[in-house]
Amino acid sequence: QRVESGGGLVQAGGSLALSCAVSGRAFGSAAMAWFRQAPGKEREFVAAIRRSGRTICYADSVKGRFTIYGNNAMNTMSLQMNSLEPEHTAVYYCAARVEFSGSGCVRSGYDYWGQGTQVTVSS
Fold first, then answer.
1. What span, in angstroms and rounded, lies between the C-alpha atoms of 36 and 77?
2. Angle in degrees, CA 21, 82, 60, rounded to 5
3. Which of the 8 DSSP states describes residue 50?
4. How do strand 117-122 and strand 90-97 relate by DSSP bridges?
5. Mean pLDDT value of segment 56-83
6. 7-32: b or e for each residue (b if 16 or more CB lie within 10 Å)?
7. Tens of pLDDT along 78-118?
8. What is the pairing mode between strands 16-22 and 2-5?
9. Contacts (Cβ under 8 Å, ≥6 apart) of 14
10. What is the distance between the terminal CA atoms of the chain, rounded to a whole angstrom?
11. Does the structure show a pLDDT above 70 at 2?
């Protein structure tokens, strides 16, 4: 089970924090990530954190604005979003990948997905 929370409406320049809690088979995943899908667009990668080495990576479009956090047990994760702009409006999803033995940023191959939370940034 994956549950996101924290979405909402904010003015441009404002901040929001999203949270995700996982349980069941997703508990203790090798990697967790945030994705988003804007109206009329495909879902895209936002940020990820790995259990091994606590490796963190971001999409270029959010570097310097967004910060991902994950606890050591990899059952909770958050995304702090600052300096939001209207183009950040989307449904944000958390995702969990149970196993990953490679190196580097985990941008795909996620096994479990949350139901999504709406983030709307007004101009």
1. 15
2. 85
3. E
4. antiparallel
5. 94
6. beebeeeeebebbbbbeeebeebbbb
7. 999 999 999 999 999 999 999 998 888 999 999 999 999 99
8. antiparallel
9. 84, 121
10. 34
11. no
Report the distance separating Cα 106 and Cα 47, nearest Å: 9
- The CB-side HSE value for 119 (13 A sphere, CA atoms) comes to 31
pLDDT at residue 86, rounded to an integer: 95
- Name the DSSP class of 63: T
Query: Token pair 């003015």 is at which residue?
Result: 11
Dist. CA 11–CA 3, nearest whole Å: 25
pLDDT of residue 1: 62
Mean pLDDT of 25-43: 92
Counted residue by residue, the chain has a size of: 123
